[in-house]
Amino acid sequence: MGFFSNLFGNSSQKETEIMINEKLNIGIILGSTREGRVSPQVGEWVKGIADKRGDANYEIVDIADYNLPFLGTGTGQEPGIQSWNEKLASLDGFVFIVQEYNHSITGALKNALDLAREVWNNKAAGFVSYGSTGGARAVEHLRGICGELLIADVRVHPTLSLFTDFEEMSTFKPADLHLDNVNAMLDQVIAWSGALKTLR
Predict the structure, then answer these.
(1) Contacts of 179 (CB under 8 A, 6+ apart)
(2) Across 36-195, where does the E strand assignment appear?
(3) Per-residue pLDDT tens digits for 59-75
């Protein structure tokens, strides 16, 4: 218990055990809103893997459901912004489903990230990405954004190819080899989310 004693500071052992044993809430965030997107297929696949683990409460969070205005174009009081922030506040960690557009993330995801601040802080995130190069370049950009928002991003990063994990670049049929990487990523998200919860 030495590590946890240091991490939790003056918390009693009982409080520490409750904190460790309480199930975390992890949001699987769909990072695209365009017509014909495949992110819902990828998100449901990740959730199916995650739900079998039984180690957290996992849910799909679709930014398209919030009708978010572009940052700076409205009053800032739109109901979608408040609902978005409330949803993020209820979560302990995230798995971003990331699409690569022009070597970076979608404008919709960047806007959604920018329309919240403190509710991102001291939480962990993992990534599952796809694109012609597996979405790796988009995630490199997203890691920098996460750092600014005090989101701790984990190392393991499953990458999906539009050429080998999708039929005609539209029907998701992932190779079996990705299963181990998704579980390893979730292991890290759960561990870090639990540790960071003690800072909030």
Answers:
(1) 49
(2) 56-62, 93-99, 123-131, 151-153, 159-161, 166-167, 171-172
(3) 999 999 999 999 999 88
